[in-house]
């Protein structure tokens, strides 16, 4: 049985109708691939549609300001993707006259474009015979061929890319790449795949050996770091508040937030209240401090769990650089802060 033929036949019968699949234009393909890193299609689709409406061409994206881009990206997470997307759009628009690099090796030089994304654009836009290797591809190939290589190892990507290249019909790399990713997304899913209806159920090595739930092999992730954020939500006598931009490298770079007290552990009212009275808002008397949420909101990132509390601080007088509620809502925030603002 020919693996590629069966796979492509399955794909043509089962593929989802996704807007970036109906074009060879590298701009929407690049946009979709950046958005779908670490993100499910269902979650990414509204963002893709918003971006292509707001920025129909790479020139539109390039001439936008960063805050517009971050505001539209709000809630999608991994915000460095959005910042790199914007910088790369400017490079393509202004340095390359709006023309994307036309091959895998040149695409790889773009900021924010790794091996997987470069391979996707090269094959989907230019039909270049380069294999994509993402989580779906690792899963499908490791199960079908019973490969026990730990996919966290640096050498794993080369091994799986070589196998995918061997299987790929060189005259139709785009369809093969789409097919193997779609098969992993819809059929050969991470947990409890329905192998009884799988087109490969007579030839899949993992199924024959009852190892489907053991593959791919993936060693344990890095230890998660816990952080404790206490946000000070100020209101002066005009109901104005203040925010600040996160300029330090790390999570949420260039997004906005309320004044922050980061602590070593979850702290109580007395501790935070004393900090506020001692170190903050020297030009305004603090009228009251209210803990908005008794229990911390736990916001999970890939390597960090943030334990977040919001503290409402009412002040006398008018605070310097205060903004009103309607202006507040125009800034890009991490989704956890955006959700807090929306429910107020």
From TrEMBL:
Which prosthetic group or cofactor does it need? [4Fe-4S] cluster
Q: Which UniProt keywords apply?
A: 4Fe-4S, DNA damage, DNA repair, Glycosidase, Hydrolase, Iron, Iron-sulfur, Metal-binding
Which CDD domains does this entry report, sorted A to Z?
Answer: ENDO3c, NUDIX_DNA_Glycosylase_C-MutY
**Name of the protein this chain belongs to:** Adenine DNA glycosylase
Q: How is the cofactor bound?
A: Binds 1 [4Fe-4S] cluster.
Give the InterPro entries listed for this entry.
A/G_AdeGlyc_MutY, DNA_glycosylase, HhH-GPD_domain, HhH_base_excis_C, HhH_motif, MIG/MutY, MutY_C, NUDIX_hydrolase-like_dom_sf
Q: Where is the HhH-GPD domain?
A: 35-186
UniProt xrefs under Pfam families: HHH, HhH-GPD, NUDIX_4
| Homology family | Belongs to the Nth/MutY family.
